[in-house]
């Protein structure tokens, strides 16, 4: 019932914004050719009605057959909503100014003249302000969603064995197959990864949004990720099915087991609170994989005590753990012997600015470590910006990432 109330509330707000913006549009098109003006005004309502109809029919659309249609509906509605919200802010400011002017004229000896040209200017400004986020978000879907970037970093460690000096690591994270709509572009990203010729590859969780079935059409694409020393993976918070409903606990566990099998089908060595020893020229390092462990409300399936069993004698330890908050909350405090941790999870919020070494995203207000390389003493953390996306099917500024890390002995 609460969901119904929320939908009714959201649609009511949308309609209020609709009318508010329409009145401004009607006002500034008064001098246009009548045919063009009529086409613009009718087109405005056609687009709004189509958007609202899609939202009302959302629950009747079978996600198994038309999952992408549901994604398009929510995205279309959200983009229009944001655009109209921006326009309304400017229109509201102008109406407040006009209201203050009207009240001032009620007092004697005070006369404020209403400027029609100023009102027209503010209405046009409001519509432009609404068009900018619509255009930006549309570009983020068309161009940013699959604009894969290879980001290279070098990490130095005194504990790295000489045999591993110069080893090249590839990392991807947060694939979210349930959100994809362009298989050719997704496959192109995998080709780009393989072209880097990494020695070892890691996937740090979130293969799906909610259910294992989302990944079926993409398994053969990600199966192509290859590296001579192996491909290792862990689970992310979305992989446990915690954000959808299940008919029974058994059904949920069965789906998790299916996901485990999918990792094996792709040739990924899935680490479930366990570790592997990697040997090169007689020297060894430990690859540790912890199940999802997130600070705060996020799930804590991870068990580091179990994960590190048998690794005491290994000189260099590399940990795969999906959520970067795990680093400060537990790893740096209780496991200072972990030399390098690879994480993902944040997506860089799929929105931000990166120019040279300057980096900003709203994600920084939620996560202390939200993208790229962080170092404290001899410990390092790399946070991948994510390969896929969820919610908004695009990226603005914070582009999808393929990480290439070179390990060097300091």
Give a description of the structure:
With 410 residues, the protein is an alpha/beta fold. 41% of the residues lie in helices and 17% in strands. The chain contains nine helices and 14 strands. The chain has helices at residues 2-28, 34-56, 63-104, 116-144, 183-195, 219-222, 249-265, 304-307, 325-334, and strands at residues 149-157, 168-172, 200-203, 231-233, 269-270, 274-280, 283-289, 317-320, 340-343, 353-355, 358-360, 372-376, 379-383, 401-409. It is elongated, with a radius of gyration of 26 Å. It starts with a helix and ends with a strand. The model has no long low-confidence stretch (mean pLDDT 91).
Overall 3D shape: elongated
Cα distance, first to last residue? Answer: 60 Å
Number of helices: 9
What is the mean predicted local confidence, pLDDT?
A: 91
Radius of gyration: 26 Å
Class by SSE composition: alpha/beta
Give the tally of β-strands.
Answer: 14
**Assembly form of the protein:** single chain
Helicity range: 40-55%
């Amino acid at each position: 019932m609460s969901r119904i109330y929320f939908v009714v509330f959201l649609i009511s707000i949308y309609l209020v914004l609709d009318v508010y913006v329409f009145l401004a549009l009607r006002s500034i098109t008064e001098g246009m050719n009548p045919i063009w003006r009529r086409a613009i005004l009718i087109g405005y309502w056609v687009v709004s009605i189509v958007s609202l109809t899609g939202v009302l029919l959302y629950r009747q659309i079978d996600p198994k057959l038309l999952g992408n249609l549901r994604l398009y509906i929510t995205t279309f509605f959200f983009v229009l909503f944001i655009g109209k919200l921006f326009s309304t802010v400017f229109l509201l400011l102008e109406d407040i100014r006009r209201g203050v002017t009207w009240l001032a004229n009620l007092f004697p000896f005070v006369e404020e003249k209403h400027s029609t040209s100023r009102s027209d200017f503010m209405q046009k400004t409001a519509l432009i302000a609404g068009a900018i986020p619509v255009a930006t978000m549309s570009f983020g879907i068309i161009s940013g969603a699959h604009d894969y970037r290879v980001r290279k970093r070098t990490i130095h460690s005194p504990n790295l064995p000489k045999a591993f000096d110069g080893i090249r690591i590839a990392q991807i994270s947060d694939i979210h197959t349930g959100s994809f709509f362009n298989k050719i572009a997704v496959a192109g990203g995998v080709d780009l990864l393989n072209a880097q010729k990494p020695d070892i590859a890691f996937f740090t969780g979130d293969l799906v949004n909610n259910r294992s079935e989302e990944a079926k059409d993409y398994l053969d694409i990600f199966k192509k990720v290859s590296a001579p020393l192996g491909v290792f993976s862990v689970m992310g918070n979305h992989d446990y099915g915690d954000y959808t409903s299940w008919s029974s606990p058994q059904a949920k566990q069965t789906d998790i087991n299916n996901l485990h099998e999918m990792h094996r089908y792709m040739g990924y060595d899935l680490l479930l609170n366990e570790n592997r020893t990697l040997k090169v020229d007689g020297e060894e390092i430990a690859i540790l994989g912890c199940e999802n462990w997130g600070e705060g409300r996020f799930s804590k399936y991870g068990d580091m005590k179990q994960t590190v069993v048998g690794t005491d004698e290994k000189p260099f330890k590399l940990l795969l753990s999906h959520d970067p908050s795990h680093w400060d909350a537990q790893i740096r405090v209780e496991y200072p012997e972990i030399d390098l941790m690879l994480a993902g999870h944040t997506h860089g919020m799929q929105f931000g600015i990166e120019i040279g070494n300057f980096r900003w995203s709203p994600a920084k207000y939620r996560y202390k470590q939200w993208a790229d390389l962080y170092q404290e003493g001899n410990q390092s953390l790399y946070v991948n910006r994510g390969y896929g996306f969820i919610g908004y099917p695009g990226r603005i500024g914070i582009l999808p990432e393929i990480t290439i890390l070179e390990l060097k002995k300091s």
